[in-house]
Write a structure and sequence with these properties.
Blueprint (H helix, E strand, L loop, with lengths): L2 H7 L13 E2 L2 H7 L4 H10 L7 E2 H4 L10 H6 L28 E2 L5 E7 L23 H13 L5 E6 L7 H12 L6 E6 L1 H4 L6 H8 L4 E7 L8 H12 L3 E7 L8 H13 L3 E6 L14 H14 L7 E4 L8 E3 L4 E3 L2
Parallel strand pairs: 4-5, 5-6, 6-7, 7-8, 8-9, 9-10
Antiparallel strand pairs: 1-2, 3-4, 10-11, 11-12
Length: 345
């Protein structure tokens, strides 16, 4: 088992919420419940050996039984292609290890820094660019947490702190409340951004105590959710997003362009419509980061540009996410336009 997988076992200090207990980790159980057949279960088990299956039951309930091409299932089902080496697909595609000044902190861009709050997730997305990340080396506990806070405090250019992981909401409300309290004491911080898949895959996690710490400090809260397909947004997700907005949380969405999931104009347009109906602004559409094990999800940049031409022709500008690529060492994400890539302002 790699260090990254050990990191996902989870930090004992976080005491994950009870809502995380309802997840499926057995490929055979998933395949049986979705009526996918024993051969699929066998190949899924083999493919999950180094990056295990993990998916909440409430997310599975949104999948179509017997459909291997279901866009939600494709995001979480281990497949044999993950084991095939692919040129250019590596363990650390964004070279994040070089952007960590102290354990648990990533500082890649001016004005904001990211805290690796937890290595755990409610769902293991098969295209995750941190699927090989050594979370065990970045646990924010004890002296490491103090060092991370000291680093943020020492740099007055940092105005925004980003809680990430894994999924930061895998940590307990008590841990997160204490963390945000410490962050709010840093005078030059203004924004608290949370990158999380929880409101989409496990909306029950966003309870009153979660809303309290998220909105109870002087820091302005912003939540970036991660939704790739309109079918992910059901009634419980809508209720969760409404609760966040009612507490004054600004909501944005980032997606990844994935072959067989959302690589059509129809799928991308429907996703934007559903997001805005839920009070979430489409923000980024990422080209796939070339992480080892995810090459089968790749959509070429040329195809992505063609898709965005179609999306732009159908939708008003505020519904069109920015197509971007992240490049190791760049000063910002790169905006991919019709004929070139440019650094975002």
């Amino acid at each position: 088992m790699s260090v990254g997988r050990l990191g996902r076992k989870r930090q004992a200090e976080s005491h994950p919420p009870a809502s995380l207990a309802g997840v499926m980790t057995d490929p055979e159980q998933l395949c049986d419940e979705l009526q996918l057949g024993s051969d699929v279960a066998v190949s899924a088990r083999a493919a999950s050996a180094t990056f295990g299956l993990r998916v909440p039951r409430v997310f599975v309930d949104r999948m179509e039984r017997g459909n291997l091409d279901d866009p939600l299932l494709r995001q979480v089902l281990p497949v044999p292609e993950e084991l095939d080496p692919a040129p250019g697909f590596v363990d650390d595609p964004l070279e994040e290890s070089a952007a960590s000044p102290v354990p648990g902190v990533l500082h890649k861009y001016h004005g904001r820094a990211l805290l690796m709050v937890s290595g755990a997730c409610a769902v293991h997305c098969r295209y995750c660019f941190r699927r090989h990340f050594p979370y065990g080396d970045h646990q924010l506990v004890g002296d490491r947490l103090s060092a991370a806070i000291d680093y943020l405090e020492s740099d007055p250019s940092i105005r925004e702190v980003i809680l990430s992981g894994g999924d930061p909401l895998s940590a307990s409300n008590a841990y997160l409340a204490d963390l945000v309290g410490r962050l709010s004491s840093i005078r030059h911080l203004r924004w608290l951004r949370v990158h999380t898949r929880m409101p989409i895959v496990l909306p029950q996690r966003i309870d009153d105590r979660c809303l309290d710490w998220l909105t109870g400090s002087r820091l302005r809260p912003l939540v970036v959710v991660h939704c790739n397909h309109a079918n992910e947004i059901g009634a419980a997700v809508l209720n969760c997003l409404t609760a966040l907005r009612s507490r004054g949380v600004l909501l944005l969405n980032q997606s990844v362009l994935l072959a067989g999931v959302n690589d059509s104009v129809d799928a991308l347009c429907e996703l934007s419509h559903r997001l805005v109906e839920a009070g979430v602004m489409p923000y980024y559409l990422h080209l796939l980061d070339p992480v080892a094990g995810a090459a089968h999800f790749e959509v070429t940049e040329e195809t992505a540009r063609e898709l965005m031409v179609g999306v732009t022709a159908r939708l008003p500008g505020y519904l069109v996410p920015r197509l971007v690529r992240e490049v190791a060492g760049a000063e910002a994400k790169l905006l991919v336009s019709a004929g070139r890539s440019a650094i975002l302002p």
